[in-house]
Amino acid sequence: MLKKLSYILAAITLVCTMAFAAGCGSKNSDDKQAAQKASFRSIADIKQSGKLIIGVFSDKAPFGYIDKDGNYQGYDVYFAERLAKDMGVKAEYISLEPANRVEYAKTGKVDIVLANFTVTKERAEQVDFALPYMKVALGVVSPKKDNITSIDQLKDKLLIVAKGTTAETYFDKHHPEIKLLKFDQYTETFNALLDGRGAAFSTDNTEVLAWAMKNPDFKVGITSLGDLDTIAPAVQKGNKELLAYINDEIKKLGKENFFHKNYEATLAPVYGSAVNPDDLVVEGGEVKK
Questions:
Q1: Predicted pLDDT of residue 289
Q2: Where residue 263 falls among pLDDT bands split at 50, 70, 90?
Q3: I need a surface site. Which of 165, 177, 250, 284 has the fewest CB within 10 A?
């Protein structure tokens, strides 16, 4: 009888322990979710700190790069400066790589990602995108002497891409037969192209066009590939206050023709007459085909 009673007490103890652990696990899970939801900064927090933390590229001229004096410059940075100024704070920049843009927005390591960030369905499930300020497609640049002008020419050749970009996603999905040579940073991708480690390099057509104009031995043989996409700022999921601020700014700046002025200051010196600004610039968040 005592032995049977011991078994019953042990069973009750085990059930209680499991229930307590489950309760704690549920509470810990709830606490973790709450902490994640609260990890972004409010506009009041940003103003109190005096700085808006913005993730940008440091090696993707003319959109985000560091000049010879150590200052961030480019189309994205020009916009970032205005966002911070209108909020009454200073812009503080954190250098990003293509593959970590989602992580930095998703985890609140930066307030805003402004790093030539193409809007995709997959990314929109992890971050919140504001209205667009630019439109873009993919392009392919290669040496003039062996210029790649069609996808078929990439068969049995290496195509260079940056990890975490829409080019990587596009070729993995639509052309798995093409072998990709992947790098973390844009500097590495262009060095690989210059060194002849790949037959061509694919990324946003805006970027390859700009690079080819500075490197006359190379040419963009494929100027538009895939769908026309948009580029937009991104914030952490659920940060509705900051998202609304950015959207209001984009609408307001559109009335000033701000992004065309941005283009003239940052992109026109690179593209010259080779590109029509209206093919790239989006004013007021409204995309016009």
A1: 66
A2: very high
A3: 177
Q: Is 7 a domain residue?
A: no
Residue 251 lies in a domain: yes
Q: Check pLDDT > 70 for residue 7.
A: no
Are 230 and 287 in contact by the 8 Å Cβ rule? The answer is yes
Residue where one domain finishes, among candidates 213, 228, 243: 228
Distance of CA 112 to the CA centre of its chain: 10
Whether residues 238 and 129 fall in one domain:
yes
- pLDDT, residue 275, reads 85
Spatial distance between the Cα atoms of 50 and 57, rounded to a whole number of angstroms: 22
Q: Is the pLDDT of residue 23 over 70?
A: no
Say how many CA atoms lie within 13 Å of 93 toward its Cβ.
Answer: 23
What's the confidence (pLDDT) of residue 25? 47
The pLDDT assigned to 111 comes to: 98
Task: Provide the b/e sequence for 238-268 (b: ≥16 CB within 10 Å).
Answer: ebeebbebbbebbeebbeeebbbebbeebbe
Domain extent for 271:
43-133+232-279
In the chain, % of residues over pLDDT 90: 79
Contact indicator for 77, 257 with CB cutoff of 8 Å: no
pLDDT of residue 226: 86
Residue among 46, 106, 116 at smallest CA distance from 78: 116
